[in-house]
Amino acid sequence: MIGFSCHSRNYGAGTPDEIFGFIKKLGFEFIDVDSVGTIRQEDVIENPENMASFVKELSGRHGIKLAEYFLGNVWVDVEKIETSQPDVRKRNKMYVNFDKICKYARLAGFRSIMGSAGTLIQEQGFERSFDNAALTLGKMVQIASDQGISFHVEPSQNSLLNVPSKAVEMAKAAVGLRYTLDFLHFQVNGHSQDESMKLLEYTGHMHARQAAVGWPKCPFEYGEIDFDTIIKRLRGLRWDGIIAMEYWNGPAEEAAGMSPVEQTILMRYHLKGLLKKYYG
């Protein structure tokens, strides 16, 4: 069955208690927790057990379940380590910190962690960057699995997986890797939804927001992503997972007077109708 989550970053700054409480008041069953402003990655690495206890208590007190820990890149000291990083020593240090993060996620009660798909290292070229990322992601899948956590990455417009065919290739190269799929990253650059739909069979978690060609995070009514077809296909795949509403204002959205709360609720309402249509 499909559940609905809300990204903790959607509505701006606040204490973890305020953020969890507000998202619960909006009627969400699950929460996706980011690692920058809500539960900081550096705090997790420093003391996984204490942070897991803190987040588990928050989840229980507010009656909201933990879906995905939105991690991105893993940091080592003051350096963000790309999964396409060619330096084996740096990658090995990163695995140590990633194992701590996985331990935290397991103890807290998360379903999954979302990491980085990797970016192009110019001096290495695309193919070598891709191969390094595949090797690294495969190792991270195993570390997460050993801790009882699913590991996902997001094929994004700024990553090595910025076209659907490359994301399919990576899923085959890094055995066990699953995706947190956000159709915005392909729609905004004009990729066919028929092509991006092929990633659904490799998807463990999803983000939902609207977009149009050349217009990321457009207002719901201008959106070109066909969620009817997506939900219908998920039903055919018997997909069991969480769809997270992910919408926060950048400078353009803020200047346009757009409301993240309105966009979140509109999207959830639309998806609930589609679930009723295809799941009964």
How would you characterize the overall build of this protein?
The protein is an alpha/beta fold and 280 residues long. Helices cover 45% and strands 19% of the residues. The chain has eleven helices and twelve strands. It has helices at 16-25, 41-46, 48-62, 88-108, 126-146, 164-173, 184-187, 193-196, 227-237, 251-255, 260-279, and strands at residues 2-7, 30-34, 65-72, 74-76, 79-81, 112-115, 150-153, 178-181, 203-208, 211-212, 215-216, 241-245. The strands form three sheets. It has an eight-stranded parallel β-barrel, surrounded by five helices. It has a two-stranded antiparallel sheet with strand order 4-5. Strand 6 (112-115), helix 5 and strand 7 form a beta-alpha-beta unit. Helix 3 (48-62) runs parallel beside helix 4 and helix 9 packs across helix 11. It is globular. The chain starts with a strand and ends with a helix. The model has no long low-confidence stretch (mean pLDDT 97).
Q: Helix and strand layout, with pairings?
A:
Layout: E1 2-7, H1 16-25, E2 30-34, H2 41-46, H3 48-62, E3 65-72, E4 74-76, E5 79-81, H4 88-108, E6 112-115, H5 126-146, E7 150-153, H6 164-173, E8 178-181, H7 184-187, H8 193-196, E9 203-208, E10 211-212, E11 215-216, H9 227-237, E12 241-245, H10 251-255, H11 260-279
Parallel strand pairs: 1-2, 1-12, 2-3, 3-6, 6-7, 7-8, 8-9, 9-12
Antiparallel strand pairs: 4-5, 10-11
Helix pairs in contact: 3-4, 4-5, 9-11
